[in-house]
């Protein structure tokens, strides 16, 4: 029986067990995936005992992503740039770390907008918090030429530029609406629009109709930003796709099968988020 889990503090909110449980059933794998509460002071010990506790690896969520990065034996090059891991797996007695959030975002985009090509384009990202790092990294890896980043705290956008280079163009938060023209992609990585948070107020009048608009917020499934953009005729990409796609590589590393993000899986998790959801 292969075992994996998601660690965090708290962890009761995690929807990862729904995703991995679905795949374990779909592929008939004798495995388990559970929520594992791990307090910050217990993290180092938990990771050093991961194999002895019978786990093939684990997912890592808040607040452990950076601390776990510092504790793994090795992380891949792309993950080194982020300084945060969300997936850990064991190989030859070593504890290896990786981060699948960026590919989760990109693969969700590609599944929703087949043929989307970001190479050489200008894109805009709203937000410069923890989740934005993987999105920046992934967009630059996709060849985005100019990534305009607007954030309430401008200093955090400057930090992104220092970390990821001059293709990152910091922009004052208030100016985001003015600079929307000519963007292949607009992506919200702030927590605005999330259930319990204020809505994102953004003037979309300069948004070109062929700009793809994505939100990484997934509660609600369709944020006000996405509703507004869709009603203008823009293609929109909901945040749930990123959550589903980021799970793929971990499952493959632990259980040896590369799983598919199916409409059935999407609807299963969507109904957990919104019991009234229907396709
Ligand atoms: N789809 C997925 O798989 C996925 C993965 C990870 C996260 N997420 C979602 O992404 C969102 C952000 O997560 P995070 O971990 O990056 O959070 P975070 O580190 O706390 O960052 C929050 C971001 O929102 C901005 N913000 C918050 N309140 C604001 C306000 N009133 N006005 C303007 N900007 C405001 C912050 O700006 P300042 O820098 O100025 O504070 C910062 O850029 C959450 O909703 C989370 O659930 C989704």
| Structural domain tally | 2
Order of helices and strands: EHEHEHEHEEHEHEHEEEHEHH
Instruction: Provide the low-confidence segments as ranges.
Output: none
Fourth CATH level, the homologous superfamily of the largest domain: Leucine Dehydrogenase, chain A, domain 1
What overall form do the CA principal axes indicate? globular
Number of helices: 10
Q: What is the mean predicted local confidence, pLDDT?
A: 97
**Oligomeric state of the chains?**
single chain
Say what the CATH topology of the largest domain is: Rossmann fold
Structural class estimated from helices and strands: alpha/beta
- Bound ligands: NADP nicotinamide-adenine-dinucleotide phosphate
| Beta-strand residue percentage | 15-25%
Give a quick account of the main beta sheet: strands, pairing sense, barrel closure: 6 strands, mixed
**Structure summary, number of beta strands:** 12
**Strand order in space, largest sheet:** 2-1-3-5-6-4
Gap from first CA to last CA: 35 Å
Describe the structure in your own words.
The chain is of the alpha/beta class and 279 residues long. It folds into two domains: 2-99 and 241-273, Leucine Dehydrogenase, chain A, domain 1 (Rossmann fold); 115-238, Rossmann fold, CATH 3.40.50. 35% of the residues lie in helices and 21% in strands. The protein has ten helices and twelve strands. A six-stranded mixed beta sheet has the order 2-1-3-5-6-4. A hairpin with a 2-residue loop joins strand 5 (87-91) and strand 6. Helix 1 (16-26) crosses helix 9 (240-255) and helix 5 (101-112) packs across helix 9. The longest helix is centred in the last third of the chain and has 16 residues, at 240-255. It is globular, with a radius of gyration of 19 Å. The model has no long low-confidence stretch (mean pLDDT 97). The structure holds NADP nicotinamide-adenine-dinucleotide phosphate. NADP nicotinamide-adenine-dinucleotide phosphate (NAP) is lined by residues 101, 104, 127-132, 151-153, 156, 189-192, 194, 198, 216-218, 239, 242-243, 246.
């Amino acid at each position: 029986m292969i075992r994996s889990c998601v660690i965090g503090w708290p962890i009761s909110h995690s929807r990862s067990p729904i995703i991995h449980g679905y795949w374990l059933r779909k592929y008939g794998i004798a495995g388990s995936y559970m929520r594992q509460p791990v307090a910050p002071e217990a993290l180092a010990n938990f990771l050093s005992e991961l194999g002895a506790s019978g786990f093939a690896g684990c997912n890592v969520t808040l607040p452990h992503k950076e601390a776990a990065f510092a504790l793994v034996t090795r992380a891949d090059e792309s993950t080194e740039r982020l300084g945060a891991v969300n997936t850990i797996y064991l190989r030859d007695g070593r504890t290896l770390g990786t981060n699948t959030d960026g590919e989760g975002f990109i693969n969700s985009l590609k599944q929703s907008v087949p043929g989307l090509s970001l190479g050489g384009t200008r894109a805009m990202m709203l937000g410069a918090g923890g989740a934005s790092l993987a999105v920046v990294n992934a967009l630059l890896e996709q060849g985005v030429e100019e990534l305009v980043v607007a954030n309430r705290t401008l200093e955090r956008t400057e930090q992104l530029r220092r970390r990821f280079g001059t293709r990152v163009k910091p922009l004052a938060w208030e100016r985001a609406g003015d600079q929307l023209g000519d963007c292949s992609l607009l992506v919200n990585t702030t927590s605005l629009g999330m259930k319990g948070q204020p809505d994102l107020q953004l003037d979309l009048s300069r948004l070109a109709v062929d700009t793809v608009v994505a939100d990484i917020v997934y509660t609600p499934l369709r944020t006000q930003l996405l509703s507004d953009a869709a009603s203008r005729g823009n293609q929109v990409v909901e945040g749930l796709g990123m959550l589903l796609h980021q799970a793929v590589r971990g499952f493959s590393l632990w259980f040896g099968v590369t799983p598919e993000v199916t409409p059935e899986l999407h609807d299963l998790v969507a109904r957990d988020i919104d019991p009234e959801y229907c396709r």
